[in-house]
Amino acid sequence: MTTQTTQEPEQPALTGGGGGVRAERLFSRWTLATGLLVLAILALILITTTNEAWPVLRAGGFRFITERTWDPNPQTGDAVFGALSFMYGTAVSSLIALLIAVPISVGIALFLTELAPRRLGAPAVTIIDLLASVPSVVFGLWGVLVVAPALVHVYRWLNDVLGGIPLLGDVFGVPVGTGRSFMTAGVILAIMITPIITSISREVLSTVPQANKDAAYAVGATHWEMITGAVFPHSFAGLIGAVMLGLGRAMGETIAVALVIGGATAITPNIFAGGNTMAAIIVQQFGESTGLFTAALIGLGVVLFAMTIVVNLAARVVVNRAELRMRGAAG
Amino acid sequence: MNRKLLSRLLLVGVALAMLAGCGGGNGGTSGNNNQSGGSDLSNLSGELKASGASFPDAYYQEVVSAFKEKAPNANVTYNAVGSGTGKKEFGQGLTDFAGSDSLVKDSDGVAAGSFLYVPTVAAPITVSYNLSGVDKLQLSADTVAKIFQTDIKKWNDPAIAADNPGVTLPDKDITVAHRSDGSGTTNNFTRFLKAAAPSSWKLGSGDTVAWPSGTQGGEKNTGVAQIIQQSDGGIGYVDLSDATESKLAFASIKNKDGQFVQPTLEAAAAALEGAEFADDLTYNPLNAAGAASYPITSPTYLLIKSRYDDPTKATLVKAFVRYVLTDGQALAKEVNFAALPSSLQQKALAQLDKVQS
Q: For position A5, what pLDDT does the model report?
């Protein structure tokens, strides 16, 4: 193949004879193989982890995800392993992270694509990407030493102001003294996922055709009307994709969360109380675990995996429905 | 197009080959020494790898560097990965000996009869606290149990007041700090509560227990110390070495004889005197008898193989452990560990004679 092409250098590859066709076939096989490889790796991970976790899944069954107690060494009886508290912690901390990070990220992305002058845009992008390259353990240590103690005062103030109101008072409850809580974990996660959501959103927003925008301006739209009328409908699916990538990182983040979330096994509406997530408890307890305990921790990994898949499928449904509606509105 | 693709593939191939080359750089670690009986350490050479409990890590690092001065050609490394992992790695033959705060269970992956326990040092586990205005605190085992179970939520609780006559306790919330990772320290602390406060303590004992939801978990002893430092009203269990390092205040704990005792090395040594030893040299200094004993004193062991296939390895292990039990004992005090009483020290040395090669 190599010799053939070097013998006929003047012939463009596109119109070339067998060489081009063979390369084409090779290319399609290679891409097919790599595509299948991803699926195979995913399937193998799922199979082996489920297999490792089987003892605890068999013993507990559905109770593994409906039980909130996690007690490897109870006073009496057998060990109890329930993932519910940690599923709750993963969901709450990720949700807080998204609530903070999505408006900020999309805001930055819109500013960079629609409003910012060129010479401001490039440095801003570099700085945001730099944030993405900070190791998560650094975020965690910063969270534990600086952010958590500082935020306690904010939490106390919020608790003073909102604590008396029904429902809101439960959510903004009495903060723990160290500040290590769902909220602190959410804040740290938000900072960690902002770069990825921002940079993908920016790519997505920059694909909106200039003609669409010009059309909106032509009928007298303001910046904001142009964005809601022309930019969002065109890029909605991509933005959801960006958010999902951020959510995936938030749900799977391990060491930073383990450091700042407080390490308590708890289901409480109070976002200023300590809790724990699935990824964090795995890294905390895996080293010293044996037998069924190890199986239970791997079981948490399987549950986390399943949760990620469910969330992504749900996102797909949302995108499909919303795209139809928004296209209709825009049209 | 064709050539571009090929050259890219080639590049990937070269990169992979280079990566593979990097992985293979780990040379053999053959031990080679003159058959000295351990008396002349300078003739020793070779490499020993060990891992295990983090609780005695400060002491082992001290001994390892002192040993290195005596035996410059012998390399000993101790990796504080935790008792459980240490036992696992030892069982798999990845290490030459292991450190452990807890006894070997069936599920730990170390075959029964394939190893010997060698007690090395002991140390008190402090109940450290951070409470502005209170610099002296006394706690009975029942009160400690109730605090860590969050049955007692405020510092001015009558139960705490009853242990501390004459002390003004503030109306502050208690923040309980515990280990988030599995730990021999947690194991010994909860075993103490189980033994000394059987009617109050309901969480059982083990490397990990189900702490109540209002508590805070920290990574390793230093993580727990940090939580205590950060919260006015904090309390937690930390080994003496790390608690001293973090400048925490310690509570006096009521022992079996009804005395409130501070966590000191002397009190830990007194607990060792009061403890009973099994034939395999395992012992339990928790809640030991004696008026001067500190009741939360934790033992720690080295696990060595009863048979090393490589005789040079056996010689090196014996020499190092002998050093730990003799000259090394003098170093214990500097890093806040209690040396073994001489009766136990002799028994521990006798374990080394059982090692075959």
A: 47
- Closest CB to B107: pick one of A75, A268, A291: A291
Q: Chain B contact for A14, CB < 8 A? A: yes
Report the 3 state secondary structure along chain A: CHHHHHHCCCCCHHHCCHHHHHHHHHHHHHHHHHHHHHHHHHHHHHHHHHHHHHHHHHHHCCHHHHCCCEECCCCCCCCEECCHHHHHHHHHHHHHHHHHHHHHHHHHHHHHHHHCCHHHHHHHHHHHHHHHCCCHHHHHHHHHHHHHHHHHHHHHHHHHHHCCCCCHHHHCCCCCCCCCCHHHHHHHHHHHHHHHHHHHHHHHHCCCCHHHHHHHHHCCCCHHHHHHHHHHHHHHHHHHHHHHHHHHHHHHCCHHHHHHCECCCCCCCCCCCCECCHHHHHHHHCCCCCHHHHHHHHHHHHHHHHHHHHHHHHHHHHHHHHHHHHHHHHC
Query: How many interchain CB pairs under 8 A, A with B?
Result: 135
Average pLDDT over residues B240-257: 93
Please, where are the H alpha helices in B24-129?
A: 57-70, 83-91
Residue of B nearest to A291 (CA): B107
Higher pLDDT, B182 or B234: B234
Asked if B85 reaches chain A (Cβ–Cβ under 8 Å), the answer is yes
Q: Say yes or no to pLDDT of B25 above 60.
A: no
Mean pLDDT of B96-103: 92
CB contact under 8 A, B204 and A149: no
Give the Cβ contact number of residue A62 at 10 Å.
8
In the stretch 175-214 of chain B, residues with CB closer than 8 A to chain A read: 175, 178, 180-183, 190, 194, 201-214
User: Contact A186/A154 with Cβ under 8 angstroms?
Assistant: no
Portion 76-95 of A in contact with B at CB < 8 A: 76, 80
Chain B residues within an 8 Å CB radius of A268: 213
Q: Which of A68, A73, A142, A284 to mutate to test the interface with B (most CBs of B within 10 A)?
A: A73
- How would you label A135-153 residue by residue, b for 16+ Cβ within 10 Å and e otherwise? ebeebbebbbeebbbebbe
Confidence of residue A18 (pLDDT cuts 50, 70, 90): low
pLDDT, residue A120, reads 85
Label the pairing between strands B97-100 and B297-305.
Answer: antiparallel
Query: Among B109-113, B260-264, B278-282, whose mean pLDDT is lowest?
Result: B109-113
* B151: contact with A, CB 8 A cutoff: no
> B13 to chain A: which residues are within 8 Å by CB?
none
Give per-residue pLDDT as tens, A41-51.
Answer: 999 999 999 99
Whether residue B293 lies within 8 A of chain A, CB to CB, comes out as no
Q: Tell whether B217 is within 8 A of chain A (Cβ).
A: yes
- pLDDT in the model for residue B38: 43
Which residues are registered as beta bridge partners of A247? none
Would you call A55 an interface residue with chain B, using a CB distance cutoff of 8 Å?
no
- On chain B, the residues whose CB falls within 8 A of the CB of A176 are 175, 214, 216, 231
Task: Using a CB–CB cutoff of 8 Å, tell me whether B219 touches chain A.
Answer: yes
* Reduced DSSP (H G I as helix, E B as strand, rest coil) percent helix, strand, coil of chain B, to 5: 40, 20, 40
- Average predicted confidence (pLDDT) for chain A: 89
Q: Pseudo-torsion of CA B270, B273, B277, B283, nearest 10°?
A: 10
Least confident of A296-300, A321-325, B327-331: A321-325
Does B34 have pLDDT greater than 70?
A: no
| Single-letter code of the amino acid located at B128 | S
